Amino acid sequence: MALIVYGANLSPFVRKVRVALAEKGLAYSLEPVSPFQPPPDFAEISPLKRIPAFRDTDLPEPNNHLADSSVICDYLEHKYPTPPLYPRDPYARARALWFEEYADSQIASNMVRPLFFERVVKKLLKMQTDESVCEAALRDHMPAIGDYLEKQIGDREYLVGDAFSIADIAIATMFVNVHHAGEPIDSARWPKLAAYVARLHARASFKAAIDEETPFVRQLRAA
Ligand SMILES: N[C@@H](CCC(=O)N[C@@H](CS)C(=O)NCC(=O)O)C(=O)O
Fold first, then answer.
1. Are residues 126 and 201 in the same domain?
2. How confident is the model over 171-196, as a mean pLDDT?
3. Which of 40, 98, 142, 143 is the most buried (most CB within 10 A)?
4. Which of the four pLDDT bands, split at 50, 70 and 90, describes residue 1?
C-alpha cells in the first residue's frame, strides 16, 4: 500500500489531510508540490492546480488520484473507517460537514488568506507585508468567527457530538495558520474557543505537524 499526499506542509488543506491520516494511523509519503510553481503535469491529478492532491497506489493507474482535501478525507474515511472521523448519525454528520465547509471557506478566505499570506507567504516570496490587510481581517472578520465558534463549542470538548471529528480537524488546521501568522486567539474574549484550539493543537496528530512547521515559519517571520 502506498498513499501519497502532494503538497506543502504549511497549507491548511494539506495539513487537514495529514492530520486525518495520522489520526487513522496510516503511513503515507508527502511529495512536495508548491502551489506557486506546480509541476507542469500537476493539473492531471489536480485540475485546479491546488494542493493537496492524493494518490492511492493500491488502485490501478490511471484512476488512482484525487484532488481537494474534503474529497480526500471522505475517501480515507470510507476506505479506512477506523477510527471514524465522521459521526454516524446523519444530522451530526451533516453538522460536521458544515463546520468543515465553514473552515474551508469562511475562515480560510477571511482570516488565513489575509494573515498568513501577508505575514508568512509574502516573506517567502520576498514581498512587503501589508499590515493594513491583517488589521482589516482582524477587525472585520475575526469577531464574527470568534463569537460563532465560542457559542458552538460551549462546554463541549469537541464541536459535534462527543467525539473528535472532521469538524475539529478542519477548524483547528485553519487556526494553526493563524498561529503561524503570529495571531493568538484572544482568550479573554473567546476563552472556550482558545482552550478548544489549544486542546486540539496538543493532540499528537496536530502537534507533529506544528512541530515540523514551526522552525521554518519562525525563521521566515524573523527575516
Ligand atoms: N478546496 C481546496 C482548497 C485548496 C487550496 O486552496 N489550496 C491552496 C494552498 S493552501 C492552493 O493550492 N492555492 C493555489 C491556487 O489556488 O492556485 C481543498 O480543500 O483542498
1. yes
2. 98
3. 142
4. low
